[in-house]
Design goal:
Length: about 160
């Protein structure tokens, strides 16, 4: 059942590193992101009893956003290998203080040498005073660039 109250925010960033590798990081190895973007992501853990990279996996994030240490508990709702897409739903944490519902989708489009990472937020605000999550989108774009830099330096 689709929630018609959800607002949407979409942003894209072009990366030079391998799109398959980028997708695999968010699907299978999000716990490695803290090594690639340590100033933004401090720790990523999986909930007991779940495996990395499977629908239903519950992931805990410790991150720094807008100069503040924050946390998020997310569940993987969808993985589409063909589209190189992972969709998370935020269950608990700082984001849920402002939004009733919050989904984060990251997917990679590859055309020849070009890879385009698309971040999509679908959300319902707690009230009309809540700002759109543009600074959180900027945060995700910055994490993407950190991952790319890490892979370009490593290769």
């Amino acid at each position: 059942m689709a929630n018609t109250d959800l607002q949407k925010l979409v942003n894209q960033v072009e990366i030079k590193s391998d799109g398959d590798v980028f997708h695999e990081i968010f699907r299978q190895r999000p716990h490695h992101i803290s090594t690639m973007s340590p100033s933004l992501i401090q720790n990523v853990d999986i909930h007991d009893g779940h495996d990395w990279g499977t629908v239903g996996s519950i992931i805990y994030w410790n991150f720094t956003h807008d100069g503040k240490e924050k946390v998020a508990k997310e569940i993987i709702r969808e993985i589409d290998e063909e589209k190189k897409l992972v969709k998370y739903e935020v269950l608990e944490g700082d984001i849920k203080e402002h939004y009733k519902t919050f989904f984060v989708t990251v997917h990679v489009d590859t055309e020849g040498e070009n890879n385009l990472v698309t971040w999509t937020f679908e959300y319902e605000k707690m009230n009309a005073d809540v700002e759109d999550p543009t600074s959180l989108m900027d945060f995700c774009i910055a994490v993407s660039k950190d991952i790319e830099t890490h892979h370009l330096v490593a290769n």
